[in-house]
Structures are given as structure tokens and as C-alpha cells.
Amino acid sequence: MDAIYVRQSIDKSEYSISIESQIEDCKGLVATGGRYEVYADRGFSGKNTDRPEFNRMMADIENGLVENVIVWKLDRISRSVADFAQMMAKFKSHNVKFISKNEPIVNTGNSALSEAIYGILMVFAQFERETIQMRVTENYYARGQQGFYLGARAPFGYTKVETTLMGKKTKKLEPLPEQVEIVKQMYELYGNGGVSLGQVQKWLHEKDIKTVKGNYFQKHAITRILGNPIYVKADMDVYTFLQSKGVKINNQPGDYIGENGIFLYGKTKGVAREKYAADGEEYATIGLHKGIISSELWLRVQDKLLNNHNFGSSGTGAKSWLSGLVRCGCCGKAICFKDGGRPGSKIYTICIGRIEKYCYGRQKALTSDTLEQIVEGQLLSYLKKLKVKTSKAKDNFSPQINALKAAIREKEKEIDDYVKQVRFANKALIDEIGIIVERVKAERNALSEELNRLTVQAKAPEFGGYDIDKVIAEWPDMSMDERKSIAKVFIKQITVTDDEINVIFY
Questions:
Q1: Considering the entire predicted model, what is its pTM?
Q2: Quick one: which of 263, 290, 293, 262 has its CA closest to 184?
Q3: What are the helix (H) ranges across 209-364?
Q4: Do 494 and 378 form a contact (C-beta atoms < 8 A)?
Q5: Residue 172's pLDDT is what?
Q6: Domain 2-138, second-level architecture
Q7: Exposed/middle/buried for 311, CB within 10 Å: 0-12, 13-18, 19+?
Q8: pLDDT category, 374, cuts 50, 70, 90?
Q9: Is 482 exposed, middle or buried (0-12, 13-18, 19+ CB in 10 A)?
Q10: In this structure, are residues 99 and 128 in contact, taking their beta carbons and an 8 Å threshold?
Q11: Domain extents for the chain?
Q12: CA 322 – CA 376 distance, rounded (Å)
């Protein structure tokens, strides 16, 4: 029996020769009246042999059912030199002849000459595949750098519309008002409301809100929305944050003016990643669309996502309103709360490092009651000193502050550029560069002083809309969940050693 093997990467005849055309051409090589079987892989690449019909054909070869393998062209059966060599060895061991419709030069049986020709042609086939892949990759990154939309599906909150960029057609994101409001509420709940991802998920389920695919939201989908810079009004604070996470930034600092969202593309750490790649394989480009989340709220959410990742599930504990906020000052691991397993037994603090038998830095027993009492005193004292302003002073100063941050970043870049020139300069030029650098440093310092002045003037702390006076008055009667929500809004972290309990506030 003859085996006709055909393959097409994309199952559309306008992109390459169709499966049907390949079959018809190959039939002409089947002996008159001979039996043949067609093995057709539609939509599979030739870069490897993980193809159902190819594997079925190889199984028939091993069972002695095939005498000749006929292909339209050599690269239809493989584009990998290594895979092709293994395949030909299998053909040879089962006395199977390989026939190519468009490369008759190789159809000389299993001779040394034909094997040599096979090898040469396969090298070119693999080179062509790798060249195509490289061009596709380069084009992908080049389009991303220029601001072209790269995603296949619009993220929740947006839809895609046709637009033109640099004379080329592309897609632009347009907000869907109803979904945008949901995204805003998700950010407000998680960033300002002191709630967990699970509570955001519960809220979405209660409202019967579903994803763009019509499914109920899972935590990983919520995390993707909350961690996506596509929603942020990107300013210099966002620029600095992304840069600190190793993201390669395509735009100049001056483009981060607090208006548009960001496309993040390239290699990520996973589908539901809560952190940005630290290996410099992600890229950020200012998009054509407007952001919908303030940079302050977006960055607060990123900080909380990172904290949640570090603390694991400790924030869901039901034994203390401090669950998820406390860390061991000796090993850095999260501290959890354990009781004796009997009703009314005391609850003690113990770090994960002690449980895992490598941290013995803390020797003194510390009950949750004692820790809560100390933290409560510091928290209430902190709240009494806060004066929550309702004015829009910060909004008035924000453009000036952002412009100053961009100007400072440009000055620092200018300094770096001059410093890099020193190693190629003679003494006279080095002296001249030194004078220029000192001047630019003075300009940068003046900008920094102005930034500090405006920042102080604009500082208007807002904490999730809480009425501070009401929190202080009602604290004694609050439930554990209410205290936990408030604590997560105001307290960034608590570290505990035998000698000190250190509360770090936002």
C-alpha cells in the first residue's frame, strides 16, 4: 500500500497549497490500480512530529502495511533536520521508499546519494522555517514597540475598533461603559475597600457578572484584570514601577502623562501571574486608548497583589484581625495564629519558618491578644493624627508633579549618557564633560526640590473613603472582619521579634 501524506499549517487554501491539491498531485505517483491511504494533518506545523495523522502513518509503517510514502514536497512531512533523520531511519528499517512529487531528484531509493540530498534539502527547509519564525517574532515586537494592538481578544471593559496608525490598519480599544464601571468597582473594592480576591469574586458572583467568555470569574481572571496596566492612566509613578520590575519600556518618560493605558507584551511568568517578569522579557508600550484607573489606585492594587503573593493564604485566617499582615522579624516568613485546639484556649503567634523547622529566632511566646492590643494602640494613635482632606488639591497638582518627574528622569538619562562618553574621551574632553554633568545635576536637583515642594502641598491622604472619626469611635464594637478590612487599608506590614513589634503604616 502507498501512503500519501499531506499537511497544511493553516487550513485555508489562499495561504498555501490546499490539502485537496496536494492529494490530487500525489495520486499521480501511485502505481496504476494500486492501493493507497491518505494521511492528512490540517492546521499542524512541520516543526515537530506531534501530528495525529503522521503518527498513524508511522504506526502503519511499523505494522508492515506501507511500501511507499508519497508527499507533495519534502517540507510537508517535516521541517526539522533531526526529526527527518529519525523518520528516514525508520523508513529504511522497514524498506519503505520515500517519494517527493516536486523534488524528483531525491526519488532514487535508499541510496547514499539520496540520503545526502535529503539532508541538504532538510537543512534548507529547517532554515526557512526558522527564518519565517524569526521574521514573525521581529514583526510582532516591532509592531508592539510602535503601539499597534497585539491582542487577539479585547480585555474586559473594552471592545476593538478599526483605526489607522502610521498609515497602517490596526485595532484600537474603546471602553464599554457598563464593563468599565465593573472594572472600576473591582479596583475600588480591592484597593480601597480592604477586601480579598475571594471577596471580590463573591461580589461578582452575587451581581451575576461574567467574563467576556460568559463564565463566572475565577480568582486568576480577577488577578489578571487587577494586574493589567492596560487599565491604568500611566504617569511617571507607573513608569518607575514598571522599570523597577525589569519591564523594558518603549516610550520616553515624557509620554507618561497620566492619560493612556499600557500594552504589556512578551514573555510572562504565567497565565495568572501576580508579578511582572524580572528577567527583562516583558515590554511596555503606551496604547492608543485612554486609561480608566488612576495611577495611585492601580499602584496600590499592585502592592497589595505582591503582598498577597508573599503571604500566601494567611490573610484569610479567622483567629485574628491581623491575619495576613504579620511577619517574623527573624526569618521574614509570615506569622500565623494557632490555638490549642480546645474551646477557650489561647491563640499564639508562630512563624512559618518555625513550622518548617528552620527559624528559631523568636523564643518568647506571644499571644494574639497581646499583639492585637499593641497594634490596636498604635493604629488608633496613627488614625488620630490623620487629617483626611476631601479637597481636590492633589488632582490640581498632579499634572505638574508628573511633568517634574518626567523632567527629572530626562536629566538623569542625560547624566548617564555623558558619563558613558568619559571612557572614550581625552583629558580635555573629560574635564568639559565633568562641567556639563555638574550643571545638569544642579538642574536635576532644582527640579527635585520643586517636586518635593509640590508633593507636600498636594498631599491629601485618602483611605478608601473611611471616616476616620467614625472608625475611632466605633472601633471597640467592630467585628473581626470589620477590623481586618480597616487594618489592611492602613497597615502595610507588622514585623515581630522578641524585643520589638514594628507597625508600618501606608
A1: 0.44
A2: 293
A3: 219-226, 236-244, 295-311, 352-355
A4: no
A5: 77
A6: 3-Layer(aba) Sandwich (3.40)
A7: buried
A8: very high
A9: middle
A10: no
A11: 2-138, 174-311, 314-388+465-505, 393-458
A12: 10
* H/E run at residue 194: none
Q: Are 72 and 28 in contact (CB under 8 A)?
A: no
User: Rounded to an integer, what distance in angstroms lies between the CA atom of residue 141 and that of residue 150?
Assistant: 9
Q: E strands, 43-156, where?
A: 68-71, 97-100
Under CATH, which number does the domain 174-311 receive?
A: 3.90.1750.20
| Residue 58 cell numbers, joined | 508511522
pLDDT at residue 85, rounded to an integer: 74
DSSP codes, 70-84? EESSHHHH-S-HHHH
Average pLDDT of the chain? Answer: 78
Per-residue pLDDT, 311? 37
Name the nearest CA neighbour of 269 among 314, 305, 218: 305
Whole-angstrom CA distances from 252 to 1, 27, 232, 239, 441 are 65, 59, 17, 10, 20
- Choose between 383 and 273: higher pLDDT: 383
- pLDDT, residue 120, reads 56
- Reduced to 3 states (helix: H, G, I; strand: E, B; else coil), residue 383 is helix
Residues sharing a CB contact under 8 Å with residue 138, sequence separation 6 or more, in sequence order:
none
Residue 24 to residue 28: CA distance in whole angstroms: 7
Listed residue (423, 420, 419, 410) closest to 437, CA to CA: 419
Per-residue pLDDT reduced to its tens digit, 415-436: 878 777 766 777 777 778 778 8
CA angle 207, 213, 218 (to 5 degrees): 55
The burial of 142, by beta-carbon neighbours within 10 Å (0-12 exposed, 13-18 middle, 19 or more buried), is given as exposed
C-alpha–C-alpha distance, residues 335 and 490, integer Å:
19
pLDDT tier at 140 (50, 70, 90 boundaries)? very low
Characterize the bridge pairing of strands 326-328 and 491-496: parallel
Residue 314: pLDDT over 50: no
Place of cell 467592630: 478
Q: Cα–Cα distance between 159 and 163 in angstroms, integer?
A: 13
154's enclosing H/E stretch is: none
Residue 62 has pLDDT above 70, yes or no: yes
DSSP state at residue 155? P
Q: Percentages helix, strand, coil for the chain, rounded to the nearest 5?
A: 50, 15, 35
Upper half-sphere CA count for residue 58 (Cβ side, 13 Å): 15
The CA distance from 270 to 276, in Å, is: 10
Distance CA 212, CA 224 (A): 13
pLDDT digits (tens, 9 = 90+) for 290-299: 899 999 899 9
Which pLDDT score is estimated for 168?
Answer: 61
As beta bridge partners, residue 493 has 504
Over the range 363-379, which residues count as b (16 or more CB within 10 Å of their CB) and which as e?
A: eeebebeebbeebbeeb
Burial class (CB in 10 A: 0-12, 13-18, 19+), 412: middle
